[in-house]
Amino acid sequence: MRCARGDRIIGCSYRRGNDDGNSGSACLDAAARTTIRGFSHPLLGVLALLFGYYTLRGVSLLWLPHTLQADPAALNIFAVFYGLDWIATVPPTVRLTTESFGKENTAVIYGWVGACHQIGASLAAFGAGAIRTNLGAYELAFWIAGVLCVLAGLVFVTVGKLAFRPAPRLTKALA
Fold this sequence. Notes:
Blueprint: H1 2-16, H2 30-43, H3 46-69, H4 72-82, H5 90-101, H6 106-135, H7 139-158
Helix pairs in contact: 3-4, 3-5, 3-7, 6-7
């Protein structure tokens, strides 16, 4: 999953002539980073983790156009920071879903989260392709994605948690 997502950026790197033969290096330490993130999950709050993950992802995307113009090693640095959180966002998102909607509703709600994620990803890919077709470069798409990720990170700090559980039914004794 991570490598497939990284291929989009690697493809952009190939077109720019930045391939130094290490473009797959970001995939090597995915298991270690995900394990570390999994251990940090109970220690930090879910909202704090998601804020950090999405903000770091956004800042990395905002820095990406610079890395494509710089030394090819800079793309490896980008890949490390960008890749820190791809898989690590799933456990805190499932926990947040469970806390907000209850255990009995988690599977259905998270299914809708996954479906919306796929719709958003397809729209982002289409938009990035349209930007590249019209402008001849991906830089604007990277900037838009970076700003949206930073905004998503800020949502976890500013909005807070809401519980969406049905109200308990009144019994005959209370009615």
